[in-house]
Amino acid sequence: MLDKKVSRQKTLRKKKKTLSFNEYKRSLELATEGMVEILDIERLIRLIVYMVVKKARLIHAGLLLYNAEKKSYILSSSRGLRGSVIPKEYIRIQPGEPIIKFFQARRGYLLNKSGAIRVEDLNRFLRNKRLFKKDKPLRELMLEVKDEMVNYEAAAFVPGYFQTKNLLGVLFLGEKNNGEKFKQEELDFFMALARTAVMAIRSAQLYKNIQKIFYGVIKAMALSIEKFDPAFTRPHMDRMFKMGSRMINKLEKRKVELPDMPKELFISSIFLHDIGKQYTPREILHKEGSLTKEEWDMLKRHPIDGAEIFEQIEGLEEVARIIRYHQEKYDGTGYPDGLKAGAIPLGARIAAVLDAFDAMTNSRPYRKKPFSIKDAVKELIKEKGRQFDPELVDVFAEVLLEEGMISFSELKEIYPDISLGFLFDSLISR
Ligand SMILES: [Fe+2]
Ligand SMILES: [Fe+2]
What we know:
By secondary structure, the chain is α+β, with helices and mostly antiparallel strands. It contains 19 helices and six strands. Strands 3-2-1-6-5-4 form a six-stranded antiparallel sheet, with helices on both faces. Strand 5 (156-162) and strand 6 form a beta hairpin. The longest helix has 45 residues, at 184-228. It is elongated. Residues 236, 273-274, 355 line the site of one fe (ii) ion.
């Protein structure tokens, strides 16, 4: 009877263990499913190591990842259950060092069919003297790998290969919290996890590179306008970039719904609003007197010409819209399409306010003496609801106040019906 009870308890314990293994396996599987969707590399790496430590209940774990710029493997993330965390970037390993050499030559498969290695596999192999008589360098390498396992307090090393040959990372696993050894099925699973993790990291890196190329293209476009009109258009665009980013940050803080695109791209759209001016004859842009009807018609083409460039690129339709509509007026009397109020994209409504302010406060070929900031703001306030989105004029006044470009008393003087909430908001954010 007693025997039966003990055996039942054993079965239950066994069942519980199996269940817990399946449970973390399922969690890891779920995590890997979403991995390819995460494009923030840092976050992705942290998630992988967190999942491994937490779900497999390890004392600690870390991920060494190949850094192409530094040509070495760097500890990209490490985490422990009991605080035994090796600081990130503390370990840097050159490709010629034992652990890397070992896995680059795919030696892990000599010790375990999974390709990963456990301390006990290594010890078993090292005891086989006959085998090493033939291959002394291999024995040396294995002894060095063993030393590294001791250094990192690792119970297992799991390599992450990209396209079977390139070693992109090594996951090192500390001992399990309950002191148990890693089972073969667990090792197989960690290998699969390392493979998926490396693929996900690789695609996140590719995405980052594409982003770099894209912002390089934007820089190149800015350069082309600089070559065309270094005196007026380029400095104007630079100021629009600066004020545009402040405005967008402010709107973000106020929880205003921004278009569904990366913030950098949104700011870049405002920066590039006058890109079409490179097709306007320079004599028109630099003309000191007033423009003839034909000249006006030519100048008025610049939003359409600029938008056309971005209409060629799939996925950048909103950038094209911001550029096309930046000369529209809130009351519908602007160009090219006479759009009204909310029908004008938010980015274009922001650009309109900043554009007018910048034109007033800087000298132009047709007007040498610029307006003072106070007079320019007065003009913006006068045009609230006519030329400009009234709320954006308020937000812009707030930005100017915060930047110290206008004083509180100056603003109060030209804007007496300013709301108290707005004043309070500006004061506390200083
Ligand atoms: Fe413009
Ligand atoms: Fe402009």
